[in-house]
Task: inverse folding
């Protein structure tokens, strides 16, 4: 099919764009649309035009692949102006999603209709930019400043029924969209055509509206703040002046390092669920999923699977533990329903369908089983021996171990080709990162099934080779060592945390340890020492031995009042560490950040050299989706590659 075709439906021309996979608005699409306006205007048989798209969605916005390239005319604002200025009125017929420039083109049309399940949005801030083709001017003219601000500053799309109520679209069209739209347009042409959206009034907005928008902009980062200023300006000046300001601000944001970093993340996230090595490999059908262990991780994993609409069977070692696991899962699903993630009755139905067992025979029908029992090789091996007997030979068996070698867990399995590691992160129903760890015998279909599960759960799946801590926890160990090296060099705990928060992490490395508990890593080190491995003493060990495990003991790297999570610098910690650290020697935050990022990038390069990760972008995704690395910085490998992170001085101590 050609990029653009025009069919006649009586006096209505139906223009169909076909630019797979998502009808991104490339230079060719822009040229074709401008030509279509001229062609329909010149055709005396045409009284109105319906714009629709082939494939899975309406226009998904500007072609992000063109962002780093010199702009090619006609530019998107030219297309928007051509459509609004057309002699024959246009109607946008939306299915799938009208996003970014796609919605801006739809708002230049005199009419907009949509399929009931369509979505409409201006997600530009998620790419570090803002609407650049009249979105900040036309959207508030259609739905008011308050709702327009919420859509623009959060980048969150809205559903078509809401859009109709708000006045963003004129009608919902069931059945054949093009036919329905043509019929509606023919009817509408019997009455006077509405004025163009740009001609509608937009007055100053109430102070409380802007105050609410300011709160949203604070959370949205730099692009959201610029978008808010542009929106505010649009309510104060005539349309043309505001349009010029919008374009200036958009182009400035598009050239920003944050926008470049966010585009890197955008494409990395879309490549993650479809590794090239698995092209053509069919995953197994995922009907029922088994989860062994209903503790912290098992309950989270089971909840994630239920929220994704999968049938779940939970296996615990006894009825008391099973009851605790089911209660945790129930709380998670009811909380999701309370937040509007799914209807309450649907949550209850899914909970009622949860299989609950204390014998592995209960998992016999499962297509995939995830083990999340104690981090103990003997316990895990016993569980897999039971599953080997209870499940079908082709049932995929996965371990959620954090640190054990999956090859050791797989020893003795009758069908190791169906086994691998699936490393979820806590809380498992929230954290998007999923590390997928094949063993040498893992079959491609098993691996493809794991990636398919990741996609079904809305995770960001990243394949990891086998090493201590896989990709994420290995880098975490390196950066914790670097943070302690800074302490030994005389930098304070608070300085390190403040510097990393200033860079964009929500919490610094020491605050994070207090939140999760210092004892988890301590026990892992003690376990290695018990096995005769040489593991250097860490400053964290000193604290744990003094009973300071973090917030759970009201003291870790910081002190905590019994009724507050507010960290307070601790005199006891200063005394405990005094023999091991230099006299206070503050460092500029930029240098602290440089050293920490250099440590991450150095460990990432070692991971790449060892073939543990497939590429630097995957390491970036691990850090962003598993450890809070700020998205708008692109990840440690991107940040180092982009020359944004000077090589820090040689590391002070070994980890
Ligand atoms: N440009 C280029 N490629 C895109 C693209 C885009 N806008 N959107 C998706 N792709 C590619 C993606 O990389 C993948 O490629 C394939 O399409 C399928 O994507 C002036 C400036 C539309 C909801 O932010 O939200 O307009 O890996 O796996 O799950 O104001 O894609 O197959 O080679 O995500 O069905 C604003 C971003 C741009 C929309 C479909 N628009 N895209 O989801 O498919 S800025 C966006 C999405 C803008 C104007 C400004 C989703 C989707 P490959 P996918 P999906
Ligand atoms: P947990 O102690 O909270 O839960 C373990 C559960 O396993 C308990 O409910 C226990 O009753 C159950 N169990 C033990 N033996 C069993 C058996 N034979 N059959 C069925 N159930 C059994 O532990 P957790 O934090 O959920 O960790 C579980 C696994 O996940 C560990 O391997 C851990 O390394 C890994 N993991 C933990 C985290 C984390 O942040 N906690 C993150 C990623 C991975």
Result:
């Amino acid at each position: 099919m050609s990029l653009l075709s025009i069919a006649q439906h009586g006096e209505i021309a139906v223009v169909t764009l076909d630019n797979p996979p998502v009808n991104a608005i490339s230079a060719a699409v822009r040229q074709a649309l401008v030509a279509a306006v001229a062609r329909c205007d010149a055709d005396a048989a045409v009284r109105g035009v319906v714009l629709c798209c082939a494939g899975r969605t309406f226009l998904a916005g500007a072609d992000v692949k063109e962002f780093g390239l010199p702009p090619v005319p006609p530019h998107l604002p030219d297309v928007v102006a051509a459509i609004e200025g057309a002699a024959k009125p246009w109607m946008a017929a939306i299915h799938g999603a009208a996003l970014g420039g796609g919605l801006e083109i739809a708002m230049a049309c005199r009419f907009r209709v949509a399929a009931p399940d369509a979505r409409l949005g201006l997600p530009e801030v998620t790419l570090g930019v803002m609407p650049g083709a009249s979105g900040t001017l036309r959207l508030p003219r259609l739905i008011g400043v308050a709702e327009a601000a919420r859509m623009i500053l959060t980048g969150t799309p809205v559903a078509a029924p809401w859009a109709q109520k708000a006045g963003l679209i004129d009608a919902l069209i069931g059945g054949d969209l093009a036919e329905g739209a043509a019929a509606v347009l023919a009817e509408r042409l019997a009455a006077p055509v509405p004025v163009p959206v740009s001609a509608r009034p937009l007055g100053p907005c109430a102070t409380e509206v802007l105050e609410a928008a300011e709160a949203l902009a604070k959370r949205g980062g730099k692009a959201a703040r610029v978008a808010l200023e542009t929106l505010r300006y649009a309510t104060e000046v005539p349309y043309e002046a505001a349009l010029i300001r919008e374009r200036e601000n958009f182009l400035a944001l598009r050239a920003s390092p944050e926008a470049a970093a966010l585009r890197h993340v955008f494409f990395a996230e879309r490549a993650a669920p479809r590794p090239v090595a698995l092209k053509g490999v069919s995953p197994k059908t995922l009907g029922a999923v088994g989860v062994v262990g209903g503790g912290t991780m098992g309950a989270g994993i089971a909840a994630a699977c239920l929220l994704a609409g999968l049938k779940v069977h939970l296996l615990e070692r006894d009825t008391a533990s099973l009851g605790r696991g089911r209660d945790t899962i129930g709380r998670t699903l009811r909380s999701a329903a309370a937040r509007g993630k799914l209807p309450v009755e649907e949550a209850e139905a899914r909970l009622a369908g949860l299989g609950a067992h204390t014998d592995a025979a209960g998992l016999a029908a499962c297509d995939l089983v995830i083990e999340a029992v104690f981090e103990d090789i003997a316990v895990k091996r016993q569980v897999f021996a039971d599953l080997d007997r209870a499940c079908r030979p082709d049932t995929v068996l996965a371990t959620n171990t954090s640190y054990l070698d999956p090859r050791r867990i797989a020893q003795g399995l009758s069908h190791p080709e169906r086994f691998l590691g699936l490393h979820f992160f806590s809380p498992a129903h929230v954290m998007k990162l999923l590390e997928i760890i094949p063993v040498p015998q893992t079959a491609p279909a098993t691996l493809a099934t794991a990636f398919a599960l990741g996609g079904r759960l809305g995770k960001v799946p990243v394949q990891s080779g086998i090493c201590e801590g896989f990709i994420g926890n290995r880098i975490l160990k390196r950066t914790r060592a670097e943070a302690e090296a800074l302490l030994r060099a005389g930098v304070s705990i608070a300085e390190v945390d403040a510097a990393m928060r200033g860079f964009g992490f929500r919490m610094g490395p020491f605050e994070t340890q207090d939140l999760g508990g210092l004892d988890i890593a301590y026990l892992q080190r003690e376990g290695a020492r018990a096995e005769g491995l040489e593991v250097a003493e860490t400053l964290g060990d000193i604290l744990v031995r003094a009973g300071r495990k973090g917030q759970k003991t009201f003291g870790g790297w910081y002190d905590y009042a019994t009724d507050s999570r507010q960290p307070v610098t601790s005199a006891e910690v200063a005394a405990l560490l005094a023999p091991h650290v230099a006299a206070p020697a503050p460092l500029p935050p930029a240098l602290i950040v440089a050293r920490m990022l250099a440590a991450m990038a150095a460990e990432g390069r070692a991971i790449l050299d060892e073939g543990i990760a497939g590429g630097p972008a995957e390491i970036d995704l691990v850090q962003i989706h598993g450890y809070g690395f700020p998205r708008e910085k692109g990840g440690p490998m991107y940040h180092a590659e982009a020359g944004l992170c000077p090589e820090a001085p040689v590391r002070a101590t070994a980890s």
Notes: Residues 454 and 461 are 6 Å apart (CA to CA). DSSP finds 25 helices and 19 strands in the chain. The chain has three domains: 4-255, 286-463, 507-585.
